[in-house]
Request: fold
Amino acid sequence: MYIFIKKCTCRYTVPSTLILRRMISSSEMATALRPFYFAVHPDLFGRYPQQRQVNEDSLKLLSAHLESLLSQKRILPSTPRTLPFYIRASNAPQDRGTFNLVKVPLERTVDTKLVLRRILESCNLSTEFVDKMPASKNSTPNQSASSTYEEGFQQQYQQSFYYRKRSEHNFGRDEDDDQDDSPFEKEFDLFQFRIKKVRENETLKKWLRKQVVTATVRTKAVQELQEEVEKLREDVTKRLGLREIIYDCGWNVEHFRGCLKSLEKLAELHPGALDGLKDRTVVFAAFTGVSLEGHVMLFTGDVQRNWLELIKTIDKHDSYLNKLPAYEYALSQVLRNIRIGRRKFMPKAQAMAYASHLRKITTALLDYLGKSKFPKSWPTNLSQFELVVESEAGPLMVNPTGQLIVPATCPGSLLVDFLTNHLAEALEKQSSYDRQKHIERDLHARCVAQFRLLSLTKDDSVTPDRMIECLEKLLAQGTKDRLELADLNLTITTYYSVLTDGTVCIPWDWKQ
Reply:
């Protein structure tokens, strides 16, 4: 990327010169921010929905900002000056559940290296990788004048930069920060404090006694609407020749009805254009595309025109879907027949993006093998292990089911080192999960029968060991005290709530 700087009469005079700058690549950016992603990734806050949601929303805004800097070298008008992120206070067992709220600054500059440095500094993370990034090459002798200009510019930001240690007691801010906060932020903090106090003192029996009437009324009120939606689903499925229609959005049943009516209207306006959906499964979800299972995903927030565009170009998405087995096989062969899987509680992903992720990680491993060899401590065959490849911002971890989770941009050397140190842990968690899932199924059936539940589900963040602990406590409490759960839909999650459709949500670690 070439930048021409003309003479100007400003505080820092820059002589006329030509500077050749090196643009930072997306893979370098992902590598630089990997420690940050490991610290704030929403998957690390499964038991803490409030912190998880804050980090998830902030990551979306940060991703849009960085994408704009890389592709367009401009700052989006909607980009905020700071983004809130929760970070664990420490890894010590006694500090589990204690977080610091950090306001990550987004510099109003197109200097991507400066933006990355500020993000890492705000969280007290190492900037060594960013500092080693070459800022320029093939520079002219006059570049020192330009550097003086940049250094003066950066000093203004460095003087205003600060990092304060925050505690959970003051909700992540010092008293001096109150003047910078909007009334909304103060109200939100007060709301969080009240929720936390209720959560600490509430027992399941006491909470149910107060909420069971509300849940029962809402459940009965929505039954008629559910019957209408079910009939509409059957009509649309039959009319379009679909295999099935699934609602996987998290909104209430009224929103599902709206989606069905939109699809029905689209079929009326464009007869014949939806023939590509025949014998397919349609899912109303959080994105528009084709999933790894071959389902046609329709984002519930999209306009009908976007749905129609996808359906018209569905063959293009299917071509990527058909290539996935070959890409997975290639990666498996490189890693000694390791099984390539998908996370059991993984959000839906697009086939096109997943194909790109598989190519990236395979290339990284082949580059590694071109210079080195796998460790001698590795088994000759890794088929008993399962590897899951996720997006650039994904974690590097062993999940509770024993799967090895790796981000697509993970360098080959880092991946090999991670596998070497975590193969034993993966085997241990696999065997534990295999035992627990059968126990969980048995307890699930017993709870549905004993409490006469309409349904019993769990949130993705609730692992089998947590679910087992919760269900065992429920059964024990049910024999002692009569818990009022008959004819209700129960969901095990991380918080207390009664949804608009009457579904009762209780935390897996509820108090007796």
Notes: Residues 1-21, 136-185 have pLDDT under 50 and may be disordered. Residues 402 and 431 are 8 Å apart (CA to CA). The longest helix spans residues 412-451.
